[in-house]
Amino acid sequence: MFVLKNGLIWDGLGNDPIKSDILVKDGKIAEIAENISCDGAEVLDVSGCMVLPGFIDALNVYGVRGPELRGNDVAEHTDPVLPHLNVVHSLDHDGMNFQELYKYGVTATGMTPSLSNVLTGKAAVSYTYGRNPYEMLLKQEVAEIASVTSATKGPYGSKDRMPMTKMGTFWLLREAFLKAQSYDKEKGHDAKCEALLPVLDGTTPLFVNCATRSEMKAIIHLLKEFPNVKPVLTGAYGLDESFEEVASGEIPVIMGDLTDGFSPNIANVDTEAVKALMAKGATVAFSCCGNRPAGGKEVLLWNGIMWYKHGVCANEVLKGLTSTPAKLLGVDDMTGSLEVGKNADLVVWSNNPIKSYNSQVKAVYIKGENLLKKERYASCW
């Protein structure tokens, strides 16, 4: 049990920061108030520092690919339609620990299977540090992952297999939904159809990797045939103000990586349009996702800084790195903001990391445990 005293608290919900104390007890935030006094609590003075929720990397492959992306337990290229696969079976705690994402304030990450299948499997959310991959899990099967970008053509076009074109990609996606829609388990088990049933009834969201404006328009058009499906557009580099469904908040967006200089999609990003959509009420998270996720421990923060430089206020950027991805991933009851009752997943910074490259991490807590003071586990890498 401890108290962080006199920090500037940014809650991750978009509210103005306040100077306050935070009491952490049993790994959770027990109180946020001025002048907290609690018998038996360790007092840690963080005067002059900022206390932020831990960042959440909405979609990435950390923990399922090794250093320098050498290991590959994320891309099952035996079939372009694999909605029944579950990424948690590829999570390697040593691989996650090796990345040391927490050193740049990232305390949780959404793990996705390969984006080079049309339907690629179920995503999960994991903490970025731990010794047991299943104890690190916050939640599994948080979303079904689909992709309609050119990445789907690479593994199969060279084998003269569908999809070799966008027509093939969208046909395979629609056919999988139609088959699941008419599925009768009394006539025999079909794992793919079973996996898509919670997507069709809206219980599980469908995260769709899309890059261009035409890909986004096409997926929205296709899903009108399946009105209960709840899509989230990821990557979304071609987003503009014509997307009324995004402006209204009906379809959320997880923006893709802006730091990959080799990506042909970055030139299509209309930052003014994204800001205009946010002003109208769009739900937007900032991330490192896209055809080529990963990068390094600093990349998520770099993306946040870039959006700040493009004119998104620091508080909205923070929201897009914390509470918004937590909500989209279905873990906002546990993490993503500084609120009483939630896990104490928080980071003490010397100053605002979204505004300044000079900001330093002073402490990183996951469920109330300061990782910077914890003995490092030996890694097998």
Task: Please outline the helices and strands.
Layout: E1 2-9, E2 18-25, E3 28-33, E4 42-45, E5 50-53, E6 55-60, H1 93-99, E7 106-111, E8 119-127, H2 133-136, E9 137-147, H3 154-157, H4 166-181, H5 191-200, E10 206-210, H6 213-223, E11 231-235, H7 244-247, E12 253-256, H8 271-280, E13 284-289, H9 299-309, H10 314-321, H11 323-328, E14 346-349, E15 361-366, E16 369-370
Parallel strand pairs: 1-4, 1-5, 6-7, 9-10, 10-11, 11-12, 12-13
Antiparallel strand pairs: 1-2, 2-3, 5-14, 7-8, 8-9, 14-15, 15-16
What is the approximate shape?
globular
- Rg calc: 21 Å
Structural class: alpha/beta
Question: What is the C-level CATH assignment of the largest domain?
Answer: Alpha Beta
Please indicate the count of domains.
Answer: 2
Number of helices: 11
Low-pLDDT residue intervals, each spanning 5 or more residues: none
CATH architecture of the largest domain: Alpha-Beta Barrel
Mean pLDDT: 92
**What's the CATH H-level superfamily name of the largest domain?**
Metal-dependent hydrolases
The helix fraction, in percent, is 10-25%
- CATH fold annotation of the largest domain: TIM Barrel
The major beta sheet can be summarized as: 8 strands, mixed
Order of helices and strands: EEEEEEHEEHEHHHEHEHEHEHHHEEE
Number of strand elements:
16
- Proportion of strand residues: 15-25%
- End-to-end Cα distance, whole Å, is 34 Å
